[in-house]
Design a protein that fits this description.
Blueprint: E1 4-9, E2 17-18, H1 21-28, E3 35-40, E4 46-54, E5 57-60, H2 64-71, E6 77-85, E7 88-94, E8 101-109, E9 114-122
Parallel strand pairs: 3-7
Antiparallel strand pairs: 1-6, 2-5, 3-4, 4-5, 6-7, 8-9
């Protein structure tokens, strides 16, 4: 079964990306060892990153900055990670203006611990 998770890239200059605990528990269980992962993108690029514990939270660390730089991801990009194998993930991302028109917004409900994300994409082909 392919497992996925979604993150919003809040700081493209950060050297890490925290992972959702629910995803890590479901995919690797606990305790979390240092794991080397491969991230693939449809453009044919791939990167090796390390999942490790930073500040008592699982995060993509060593190599994450190269992913952000290689894909030129701006702040607030919507990142979708899909598990291909146990240690291989396909990364898709969405930015305003990609594929004609796309739009997404998110609202944080900090008291409830929720983030609600709405994504709408319209692709127009001109022939």
């Amino acid at each position: 079964m392919n497992v996925s998770f979604v993150k919003i890239l809040e700081d493209p200059n950060s050297l890490k990306l925290e992972l959702p605990l629910s995803f890590v528990y479901k995919h690797w269980g606990r305790p979390w060892p240092r794991i080397h992962l491969k991230i693939l993108h449809e453009c044919g690029k791939s990167w090796t990153v390390t999942m490790k514990i930073l500040e008592s939270r699982p995060a993509l660390a060593d190599g994450w900055a190269a992913v952000v730089k290689g894909l030129q991801l701006p702040k607030d990009s919507l990142l979708v990670f899909k598990s291909i194998l146990h240690d291989v993930f396909e990364l898709s991302f969405f930015i305003d203006g990609v594929c004609g028109q796309s739009y997404f917004t998110y609202q944080r409900y900090t008291q409830l611990g929720l983030t609600v994300c709405i994504f709408i994409s319209f692709c127009t082909l001109l022939i």
